[in-house]
Design goal:
By secondary structure, this protein is an alpha+beta fold. It has 7 helices and 4 strands; from the N terminus they run E-H-H-E-H-H-E-H-H-E-H. The protein has one domain: Nucleoside diphosphate kinase-like domain (Alpha-Beta Plaits, 2-Layer Sandwich). It binds adenosine-3',5'-cyclic-monophosphate.
């Protein structure tokens, strides 16, 4: 049965800076994701604050927004059956030290902040996040 979904993925500044974007894209493709759209951009801190608004009460919010806007990122729409969950499985735990073998964050993550990738956490947020970056 088909359960085709789309989710938003961001390759974060720490990974783009180390030229890991192509290797990370290969990991998505090898797992059967289709990259429907992608662009390399740098965002303003104010845009990062809007993107991460759900975290605005968290102690790490300001650092998180400074970080996401600190350098180029690659934003992508990924498509696959159960894309939201499948992407979260491929990314691994938020903290790379807790991430499972074979995951992107285990392989490339440096710290909980510099954890190389972001992925939408629900189908509802995937729609919001895709619109955020790709609404024409
Ligand atoms: P991400 O999936 O992009 O969503 C929010 C980000 O906040 C998360 O990845 C982490 O990089 C970052 N972050 C920093 N500190 C924490 C923390 N204590 N708990 C969760 N996320 C954190």
């Amino acid at each position: 049965m088909s359960n085709l979904e789309q989710t938003l993925s961001i390759i974060k500044p720490d990974a783009v800076e180390r030229n890991l974007d192509n290797e990370i894209k290969e990991m998505f493709k090898n797992k059967g994701f289709t990259i429907l759209k992608e662009k390399k951009i740098q965002i303003e801190k104010s845009e990062a604050e809007r993107f991460y608004k759900v975290h605005e009460t968290k102690p790490f919010y300001d650092d998180l927004c400074t970080y996401l806007s600190s350098g180029p990122i690659v934003v992508m729409i990924l498509e696959k059956n159960s894309a939201v969950l499948e992407n979260r499985a491929l990314m691994g735990s938020t903290n790379p030290t807790e991430a499972e073998e074979g995951t992107i964050r285990k392989k490339y993550g440096i710290s909980i902040d510099k954890n190389s990738v972001h992925g939408s956490d629900s189908i509802e947020n995937a729609k919001i996040e895709i619109d955020f970056f790709f609404k024409d």
